[in-house]
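Working notes for the structural subgroup meeting. M.R. asked for a predicted model of this chain before we commit to crystallization trials. I am recording the input and output together here so anyone reviewing the notebook later can reproduce the run.

Input as submitted:
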Amino acid sequence: MADHPVADHVPDLRHHGDAELRDAAVPIRLDFAVNVRVPEPPRWLRDRLAAGLDTLAAYPDATAATEAVAARHGRTCAEVLLTSGAAEAFVLLARILRPRRAVVVHPQFTEPEAALLAAGHAVGRHLLTGAFTLDPDAVPADADLVMIGNPTNPTSVLHPVSAIARLLKPGRTVVVDEAFMDAVPGEPETLGGHPDVVVVRSLTKTWGLAGLRVGYVLGPPELIRALKAAQPLWSVSTLGLIAARATCEPDAVAEAETLAKQADQDREHLLARLAELPGVSVPAASRAPFVLVHTPGAAILRDRLRAVGIAVRRGDSFPGLGSDWLRIAVRDRTATDTLMQHWRQAVATPR
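Returned structure, recorded in token form:
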């Protein structure tokens, strides 16, 4: 493990999986680059959203959605703020927090660091290596803001609650990105109910709502008040609020659990097929609906797959990783088998 200043490495923090789908020579027919888990929202959710179209003349009222999120996590409404996706949450946190030393645990989703930099903060990187597991005692003791993903994008590691809780100390804010926590059956390591941890969650991944932009922050009331004061009025649309309320209902939570269990099975199939490929390794214990892969020549492989309409996510835009890394989203077995077929063909083709 290592703690490095940002200047030591300047990856493209604004590169995300959707960029892999644009400007391809041929249309992308199989997307393993974007971590949205379904191609579209389920019918029942689309029906709820469609019914909300008649209410769009009124300004959004977040009261009911806030109550639903609070009930889902056993929090009070004063501990919940709905946001325009998790990305807005990171921007708001960067604007209202005043850390003396901010540290982002990498490799992880890059928007938290990008938001801190945009707000003028100096940022340190604590880089995890090997199996990408967290040693809380190795995080710089003087860091008064620590940001970490759980399960972490792109490593797919699910850190134990006990490890993240050990990051807490007087005068330190700990922010946990739980955008993929509902993709883990039972959510065993969630800190959504912890009164002293700031948790950011997203509805994008499980429910196919990347275009709607809705997420939320769970945290101490005084922090939530400050975030709300910094947030633009009516930041979350009426349809976003309908989605937040709907997906916190018991039937929706149960459906997310079913999807998470299916993703577990599909991920095991992906891991088994990857293990058949020479030169490919998966160093992390994968628990999320994506897998981080190391393979020499990954950049060439990615280009060759893209040329036949298959997108995978480059790894070198994540701090701590290089050009020999790829992130592969979990898809159904048929799609995975097709990926493996083209992967073998791409590797067999002379450079």
